[in-house]
Amino acid sequence: MHLRAYLYLIIATLCWGGNAVVGKLAVGHVSPMMLTFWRWFFAVIIITAISIPYLKRDWPLVKKNWPLLALLGIVGYTLFNVLLYSAVHYTTAINVVIEQAGIPFLIFLANFILFRIKVSLAQILGFSLTLVGVALTASHGDLATLLSLSVNFGDGLMLIAVVAYTVYTILLRWRPPIDWRTLMAVPAFFALLASLPLVIWEQARSASQWPDASGWAAALYTAIFASLVAQILYIKGIEHIGANRAGLFINLVPVFGTLLSVAIIGEDLQLFHILALALALGGIAIAEKGKPAA
């Protein structure tokens, strides 16, 4: 049993479930690109403060692998969150968190196609259930809209974000043998750099909004919990049980996010949301129980 890994991943997904809710609460208090910038500004300060000895020790490997570390930060940290914070302007927080359940399916698919990682029939069934749940959410309970490619703009942005985070998770396969603090600090720095031109672009469109008190609170939550705590625990979870099995726990993001959205924001819980959650939970249970022997 990998109880410690399971605990890491549960806490990480709780923090990520809160990320979409905070992003929704931040609407009208800070613009998406500005929120992303300040999120990584604070995160870089915090993680660097506790990482200096490890950064010095790992510096030769950092210099050798900086393109990969930069890509991790740009794709997994900046692109994913810019899309998420933009998506909640057009769709509900519940939809955003449930659509993240598509990440494990794409991780599974990419690992199978690229690396021929062994999978079981139970895992295929579990991931398929998850995919149906995501489709149900993206189509707002009407799967026929997918056939006509009629999907809410916000839901479309979130589906692109799902692909971005899948790429990030797969790229972690090639992470250099550096301390987890270094693995957080360097990509976070590149995430901050990548957010700068986005803020400038947002400002040029006269769409930029400087954070008010609620906006600053949102930035601090995302920096501490959604960035540092969640990312670190997710990385450590992958180290213990691998990307395929760790990715399954992302299915808990919609569970926590839905509960928080209803309790904090007061969003309406629709029947298709309940069905999608049931499919996500059923998928994680079937796939985890039916994982192939190592």
UniProtKB/TrEMBL annotation:
- Organism in which the protein naturally occurs: Rhizobium oryzicola
Q: Does the keyword Cell wall biogenesis/degradation apply?
A: no
Family membership? Belongs to the EamA transporter family.
Q: Which residues form the EamA domain?
A: 4-137, 153-286
Classify the protein's membrane topology as the record does.
Multi-pass membrane protein
TM segments? 36-55, 67-87, 93-114, 121-141, 153-171, 183-201, 213-234, 246-265, 271-287
Pfam families per the UniProt record, alphabetical? EamA (PF00892)
Q: What is this protein called?
A: DMT family transporter
